[in-house]
Amino acid sequence: GAVVSQHPSWVICKSGTSVKIECRSLDFQATTMFWYRQFPKQSLMLMATSNEGSKATYEQGVEKDKFLINHASLTLSTLTVTSAHPEDSSFYICSAQPGTGFNSPLHFGNGTRLTVT
Amino acid sequence: QKEVEQNSGPLSVPEGAIASLNCTYSDRVSQSFFWYRQYSGKSPELIMSIYSNGDKEDGRFTAQLNKASQYVSLLIRDSQPSDSATYLCAVRNNNDMRFGAGTRLTVKP
Question: What percent of chain B shows pLDDT beyond 70?
Answer without folding.
Answer: 98
